Structure to design on (434 residues):
């Protein structure tokens, strides 16, 4: 962590350290569930002396905290956040961040949600579906009839950022540029990264913000801004609000910021973990092929089962708060350990068992409360299109060598990222059987 000095010990405070929870440990990355169970059983709320943040782990407490507006996702509320800049020193990143969902007041948050609703309407989303469908088809066409392929390199690194790029109107020949922009946006507010790395990432985002400011200006100059996602944001009007009836440039940039945060880097893990879950549980893969109507439930269940996060969600106390018997000081960071909560036996029967028909009422796989994930629709669409195409082309697929030769990107800043998962297509065997 980048805190300049450890918080002093507080009487009655439950404390842990890396001996209990070390998200960077290879043993944890390989098999986190024993650590999660220990946290939920013995330390549901505890101050982590090494990470310099509170860790909240049970399902009930994570759900309660996410719905409590006193705990904000605003990075600027952190006690070790960079000092505020003078208005003249702010850049596009700063202005987009402070106009965004994570930083504004609850009243402004509701206004942003209302004005962005047209961009998430069924007609706009239908057009995005087609663009993503084309992208998924292109990825599978590139795999062709290979006997074996790596899910990470063939699908996971290609679909997520490019899906958002197509959603916001980035040309295909600039999708690599957008991918780098997305990674830098995410790293810019990760409090588990050194301050210098965050600053370098923030500076690297500026060409991307300039690109989108130019696209917004071009849309505003048209007689009609267009009926795609970006055009819907530019043209959105709240007739009930005379003062701020439209989104300004930085509010539109903040929506793109939020989409990237919600559905770009994190969604890379969506595809590897979906296929790892189903191919590791052939009975569930067979069930989904028999009952494709379980698709939406299966996606959520696979994400719950896989729990691919390494670091918790970050929240920050906006005031001194008594929570679950502990005193959380204003400015302190809270790691909302939803990945542990997804395996909480108090919420889920036999939580390490994959069951795509499981009742998932009350799940917090996409968060909860006012900051429920803005990228939920996009994640579900990506997952549905990818799995449907995978089952159509490779219905007899399994994991190469029984394990997929699975490996992890051990140093990833946020996720237990699978960066190798080999799948056998078994196409030749299928033809012989036919």
């Amino acid at each position: 962590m980048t805190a300049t000095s450890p918080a002093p010990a507080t009487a009655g405070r439950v404390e842990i350290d890396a001996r209990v929870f070390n998200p960077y440990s290879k043993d944890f990355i390989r098999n986190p569930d024993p650590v999660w169970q220990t946290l939920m059983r013995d330390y549901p709320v505890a101050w982590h002396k090494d990470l310099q943040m509170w860790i909240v782990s049970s399902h009930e407490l994570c759900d309660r905290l996410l719905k409590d507006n006193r705990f904000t996702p605003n990075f600027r509320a952190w006690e070790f956040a960079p000092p505020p800049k003078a208005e003249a020193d702010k850049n596009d990143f700063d202005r987009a961040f402070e106009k965004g969902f994570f930083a504004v007041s609850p009243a402004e948050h509701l206004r942003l949600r209302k004005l962005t609703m047209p961009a998430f309407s069924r007609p706009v989303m239908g057009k995005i579906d087609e663009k993503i469908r084309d992208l998924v088809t292109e990825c599978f066409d590139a795999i062709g009839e290979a006997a074996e392929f790596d899910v990470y390199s063939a699908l996971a690194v290609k679909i997520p950022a490019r899906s958002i790029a197509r959603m916001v109107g980035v040309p295909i020949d600039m999708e690599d540029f957008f991918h780098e922009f997305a990674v830098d946006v995410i790293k810019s507010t990760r409090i588990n990264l050194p301050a210098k790395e965050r600053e370098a990432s923030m500076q690297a985002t500026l060409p991307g913000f300039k690109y989108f400011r130019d696209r917004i200006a071009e849309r505003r100059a048209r007689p009609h801004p267009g009926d795609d996602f970006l055009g819907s944001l530019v043209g959105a009007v709240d007739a009930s609000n005379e003062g701020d009836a439209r989104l300004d440039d930085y509010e539109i940039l903040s929506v793109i910021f939020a989409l990237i945060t919600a559905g770009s880097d994190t969604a890379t893990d969506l595809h590897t973990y979906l296929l790892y879950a189903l191919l590791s549980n052939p009975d569930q893969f067979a069930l989904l092929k028999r009952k494709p109507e379980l698709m939406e439930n299966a996606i959520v269940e696979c994400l719950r089962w896989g729990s691919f996060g390494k670091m918790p969600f970050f929240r920050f106390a906006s005031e001194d708060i008594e929570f679950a018997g502990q005193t959380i000081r204003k400015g302190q960071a809270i790691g909302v350990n939803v990945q542990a909560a997804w395996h909480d036996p108090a919420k889920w029967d036999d939580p390490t068992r994959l069951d795509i028909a499981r009742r998932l009422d009350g799940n917090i796989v996409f968060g909860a409360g006012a900051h429920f994930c803005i990228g939920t629709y996009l994640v579900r669409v990506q997952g549905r299109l990818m799995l449907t195409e995978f089952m159509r082309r490779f219905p007899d697929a399994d994991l190469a060598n029984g394990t997929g030769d699975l490996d992890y990107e051990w140093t990833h800043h946020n996720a237990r990222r699978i960066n190798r998962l080999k799948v056998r297509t078994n196409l030749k065997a299928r033809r012989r059987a036919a």
